[in-house]
Design goal:
By secondary structure, the chain is α+β, with helices and mostly antiparallel strands. Helix 11 runs parallel beside helix 12, helix 14 packs across helix 19 and helix 16 runs antiparallel to helix 17. The chain folds into four domains: 139 residues, Creatine Amidinohydrolase, Chain A, domain 1; 156 residues, Creatinase/prolidase N-terminal domain (Creatine Amidinohydrolase, Chain A, domain 1, 3-Layer(aba) Sandwich), CATH 3.40.350; 247 residues, Creatine Amidinohydrolase; 48 residues. It has 19 helices and 30 strands. The strands form nine sheets. Strands 4-3-2-1-5-6 form a six-stranded mixed beta sheet, sandwiched between helices.
Length: 610
């Protein structure tokens, strides 16, 4: 009997029609520890973001465009419908599957206030009942072979990389509380906590759930330990974390500054401190269960100040990010210089290519581990935007002309996440067309100049415009904010869908990704990705981008006839900048390979009359 069968039996016994299971944990994490992977335990799906609704005789998985094909491959489609992501899609499926008056069970610990309020309003308007409690049936039946929680070490993150001292950050938030007439901040997002307290952890995640955290392909560093903070306008800052995880040097640094509290006391302490008070909380990063505790004791008001402060990098952080991206970029260039020789000499697989890049990154002492699973994709696998190679799916690069790798590293001072796309052999004209159009969009966003404070969604069409002119598109966002030795996915989001994260303003000091692509199901895909820093332009009140991830483009995959003279010259100058920027970091053969790429683009510019 499958896990789904057991769950559906329990559902019937509980006298409920359906159960909602998100991929997140009680901290609303994007990447969860194995013990909290309820959704994969039921479905077999390994993507980072999804939700499932299980009814008594049917189920559905809800994923965004990155994971549509992957979900169809990984789940039993005879039992699961594969649907679009978000509340509208979930409500539509409920209308088709349940009867008016049926009850949907939700665990209030696993959903944000904003998400669950919207779902509850929509479900009740459609005639469904909601059974909202801080528990779920998966936990009741997943009692054997459940992994133990992480116990990794938590250490002090030096201010030379963090930017501001933790005491300065406390002052910023307390000023906000006083100015807005509030009494207490609940900092519920572990990423916000790590930023606020200047701490990081040695946690690792294995996205394939195989438990091998040394696997360089599917495992990566997750530097924010699962913890929460209560920061009052007056009084001690309370950090709810297991004391025995904290390094001795960190305990010494926090003495008299932060009170260490048992995580199991959080609910009771929150209820006590919130009594008769007004509490500031990010309603998209605070779970519904804790919001209910606050509302029963006092009042709650939405406040995303911490994530906004976190997104605007301090000058120290920017300096460290520039250097970290240069170190990381040199490793990627060395990998790309190795690739044509290696594939010419013999067979190279996706896993071997991923392993080689990881080894090159690890040669630098500032490298602390991968920032993400290594997405090493060839041929039909490259049509899956978030493909992670396994022994079962591992392809030979020599068998198809298209190969891209999306990967990154964690460094003191920055997190990197970049995608390079190169031809193995001779590409077809359709490969060259798709790649050229994506590169034109990537250049357009890299070269953009715009008013400071513009909504991030307004930049999305910069990257899509040339693909659109040919009736092509991609299903994921164009970009996202990037952390400082934290999660590579932060706000704001550059995407066309309008929501809280995509209407966030673009401000000076933010680091974002720029990653247009194209994917033809079952055939091939292309993507280019770099990190860009928003900086003031020559015109007052306007911003432009500085490219941090300086990585080469494959001239074999560029149709020079589709470039205008300005684009051709920009690409040439860009590659000449790579040659100068990596001087002294490459051996003679690697430097010669990169210089050859630059000469190809210089020739394109000259032929274009630029």
């Amino acid at each position: 009997m499958s896990n789904l069968d057991i769950l559906q039996q329990r559902l019937a016994a509980a006298d409920c029609a359906a159960l909602l299971i998100p991929s997140s944990d009680e901290y609303l994490s994007e990447y969860t520890q194995p013990a909290d992977r309820r959704l994969p335990w039921i479905t077999g799906f390994s993507g980072s973001i999804a939700s499932v609704i299980v009814a008594r005789d049917r189920a559905a998985i809800f994923v965004d465009g990155r994971y549509t094909e992957q979900a169809a491959r990984q789940v039993d489609t005879a039992r699961f419908d594969v649907c679009g992501f978000g509340n509208p899609a979930r409500l539509e499926w409920l209308r088709r599957t349940l009867q008016p008056g049926d009850t949907l069970m939700v665990d209030t610990r696993l959903h944000s206030v904003a998400e669950l309020q919207q779902l509850m309003e929509g479900a009740e308007a459609a005639g469904f009942k909601i059974a909202a409690t801080p528990s779920n049936l998966v936990d009741a039946i997943w009692t054997t072979s459940r992994p133990t929680p992480s116990r990794s070490s938590v250490f002090d993150y030096d201010v030379q990389y963090a930017g501001l001292a933790r005491e300065e950050k406390f002052t910023l938030l307390r000023q906000q509380l006083i100015e807005r007439g509030r009494d207490l901040f609940i900092v519920a997002d572990p990423e916000d906590v790590a930023w606020l307290l200047n701490i990081r952890s040695t946690d690792s995640i294995d996205t394939l759930d195989r438990g091998d955290f040394s696997n360089p392909i599917s495992s990566f560093r997750v530097p924010a330990p699962l913890s929460r903070v209560l920061l009052p306008a007056e009084g001690e800052v309370c950090w709810f974390v297991d004391r025995d995880r904290l390094a001795p040097e960190l305990l010494d640094a926090l003495e008299g500054v932060v009170l260490i509290c048992e995580p199991g006391r959080f609910d009771a302490t929150l209820a006590s401190l919130a009594a008769g008070k007004t509490v500031a909380a990010n309603l998209r990063r605070t779970n519904y269960h804790h919001a209910k505790i606050i509302r029963e004791a006092g009042a709650i008001e939405d406040d995303a100040s911490v994530v906004r402060y976190r997104g605007i990098k301090h000058p120290n952080e920017i300096t460290a990010a520039r250097e970290g991206h240069r170190i990381d970029g040199a490793a990627v260039v060395r990998f790309l210089a190795w690739l044509p020789t290696a594939t010419a000499k013999g067979i190279v697989t996706e896993l071997e290519a991923a392993q080689r890049l990881t080894e090159l990154r690890a040669e630098n002492e500032r490298y602390l581990g991968p920032s993400m699973s290594n997405l090493s994709a060839s041929g039909p696998n490259s049509a899956l935007p978030h493909y992670v190679p396994t022994k079962e799916t591992n392809r030979v690069l020599n068998d198809h002309p298209i190969f891209w790798m999306d990967s990154g590293g964690q460094y003191l001072g920055c997190s990197t996440d970049n995608t390079v796309c190169f031809a193995i052999g001779t590409p077809e004209s359709r490969h060259v067309l798709a790649h050229t159009l994506a590169v034109k969009g990537w250049m357009a966003l890299s070269r953009a100049r715009f008013p400071e404070g513009i909504a991030s969604t307004q930049l999305d069409s910069f990257a899509r415009q040339y693909l659109w002119q040919h009736g092509l598109d991609y299903g994921h966002g164009t970009g996202h904010g990037v952390g400082n030795f934290l999660n590579i996915h932060e706000v704001p989001h550059i995407r066309r869908e309008i929501d809280h994260y995509s209407v966030a303003p673009i401000l000076s000091g933010q680091i974002l990704s720029n990653e247009p692509g194209y994917y033809l199901k079952g055939d091939f895909g292309v993507r280019i990705e770099s990190h860009i820093l928003a900086v003031p332009s020559a015109h007052e009140g306007f911003l432009e981008f500085e490219t941090l991830s300086m990585l080469p483009i494959d001239p074999q995959l560029i149709d020079a006839n589709l470039l205008d003279p300005h684009e051709a010259r920009w690409l040439s100058d860009y590659h000449n900048g790579l040659v100068a920027g990596y001087e002294g970091m490459l051996d003679a053969a690697e430097a010669s390979w990169l210089a050859g790429i630059a000469r190809r683009f210089e020739d394109m510019a000259n032929r274009a009359g630029a």
